[in-house]
Structure prediction request, 152 residues.
Amino acid sequence: MNHVVELALFLHLLAVVVWVGGMFFAHLCLRPAVADIAPQMRMPLWLGVLQRFFTWVAVCIGVILISGGFLMSRFGGGGQSPWPVQAMTGFGVMMMLIFGHLRFALFPRLRRAVQAEKWQDGAKALAGIRMMVTINLVLGVCTIAFGVLGLV
Ligand code: HEM
Prediction:
C-alpha cells in the first residue's frame, strides 16, 4: 500500500515510453526504411504494423488516464495541481483526441484502400496518418518536458 504512488508513476511512465517510443520508431526508423518498397507490399505492411501498434496505444491510454488521474488526486484534483501537471493533462488529452481521429477515421480508410487495392487512396490515408503521428510525437515530447522539467 505504501508504494502505490511509485507503482502508479512506474505504470504511467511505462505507458508513455511505449506510446511515444513507438511513434518515434515508426516515424523516424520504419517509415524511411520501407519508403522505397512497392505500394502493394508496403501498405499491407503498414496496415499490420499500425493495427498492432494502435491496440497497444489504446491500452497505454487507459493506463495513462487511470495512473495520471490517481497521481493527480494527491494534489486534490485538477484545479489544485501545479501548472506543469495541468499542462501535461491538457496536452495528454489533445494527444488522445488526435489518436482517436487516427484510429477511427484515417486508419479505416487505409484498411479499405488496402482491401480494395486502391493504392492512391492508401497513400492519401497514410499521408494523413503520418501528419497526425508527427503532431502527436511533438506533443508527446512537450508533455514529457512538462512532466519532468516543469517540476524542477
Ligand atoms: C492526460 C492525462 C494525464 C494526467 C492526468 C497526468 C498526470 C500526471 C501526474 C499527476 C503526474 C505526477 C506529477 C508529480 O507527482 O509531481 C504525472 C507524471 C508524469 N507524466 Fe503525466 N499525466 C497525463 C498524461 C501524460 C502524458 C500523455 C505524458 C507523456 C507523453 C505524461 C508524462 C509524464 C511524465 C514524464 C511524468 C513524470 C514526472 C516526474 O515525476 O518527474 N503524462 N502525470
About this structure: The mean pLDDT is 95. The pocket of protoporphyrin IX containing FE is lined by residues 9, 12-13, 16, 20, 64-65, 68-69, 71-72, 85, 88-89, 92-93, 95, 140, 143-144, 147-148, 151 (CB under 6 Å).
